[in-house]
Design a protein that fits this description.
Alkaline Phosphatase, subunit A, 282 residues, 7 helices, alpha/beta
């Protein structure tokens, strides 16, 4: 999907939530939701979070990735320990404006490395050993009843088993340009303050690069939440490269359903099973 297609779809804000999930047991509504438009951006294939949000101060990062590591002087500094991939420079205006939140360590217990199964878990907000067919937004009828417009966009190509360095840079450049253009367009129209944008991906990538210049399927990942109502900054826990899981993936710190609970809370639904993250301005 190119920038023009992204803006065309996102600009329409068609209600195409598809098959997603209910992260709340009981639906109650706030009198004044923070948002009336939701854009969900799927990074299909499993985005490499470690080269997206970079632990530049951790020497293990370069030891694990002798050819894939992003040089310190190329990374976009977020703080003294963390950098953003240089292809995401278009998002720095949102970062400086404090309407971009980056949540690290998102995933679920006992992660499944299958694309199909992990997408199913994310789409149904289920446990790894639980099989459901209902979707998280399908069951939140109140979101649609309140006129919340939902747009679901998928960017393909993030399954970078080989030749990752340049492929991933191009993918992130497309993502950064699309999100920055969407933000600029919605600011100009006055809709940004009532819009929430969230990225998803079925899993992250393994911390260690492979022999083909790529990375294998992993576990936890970092994701972006953007909008005029967002309290920008870094959330979650930076990757612990000394505490990888048995398959070399990043350990999970934030259950992905807390991300969904945050979205639902911003849309006017509370009493969630999972606690929302403190990233929405009230």
């Amino acid at each position: 999907m190119n920038r023009r297609q992204f803006l065309s779809i996102a600009g329409a804000f068609a209600g195409c939530a598809g098959n997603m999930i209910d992260a709340c047991a009981i639906a109650h509504f706030n009198t004044s939701p923070a948002v009336d438009s939701l854009v969900l951006v799927d990074l299909d294939g499993g985005n490499d979070a470690l080269n997206t949000v970079i632990p530049i101060a951790d020497p293990r990062y370069r030891a694990l990735r002798p050819t894939l590591a992003i040089p310190n002087d190329h990374a976009l500094m977020l703080d003294e320990h963390t950098g953003l991939h240089p292809s995401l420079r278009p998002l720095m205006s949102a970062w400086r404006a404090k309407d971009l939140a980056i949540v690290q360590g998102i995933g679920y217990d006992a992660p499944n490395r299958s694309h199909y199964r992990s997408r199913q878990i994310w789409d149904t907000a289920s446990h790894a050993d639980e099989y459901r067919t209902d979707g998280w937004l399908d069951h939140v009828n109140g979101v649609h009843a309140r006129g919340i417009k939902v747009t679901h966009i998928t960017l393909h190509g993030f399954d970078t088993h080989e030749h990752q360095l340049h492929r991933h840079a191009a993918l992130l450049a497309e993502l950064g340009e699309c999100l920055a253009s969407l933000r600029a367009s919605l600011i100009a129209s006055g809709a940004w303050r009532r819009t929430l944008v969230m990225t998803r991906s079925e899993f992250g990538r393994a911390a260690r690069e492979n022999a083909a210049g790529g990375t294998e399927h992993g576990a936890a990942a970092a994701h972006f939440v953007m909008g005029g109502c967002v309290r920008g900054g870094l959330y979650g826990t930076p990757p612990r490269l000394d505490r990888l899981d048995a398959d070399g993936g990043l350990s999970v710190d934030v259950d992905f359903r807390r991300l969904y609970a945050t979205v639902l809370d911003a849309c006017g639904q509370n009493d969630c099973i999972f606690e929302p993250l403190p990233i929405i301005r009230v």
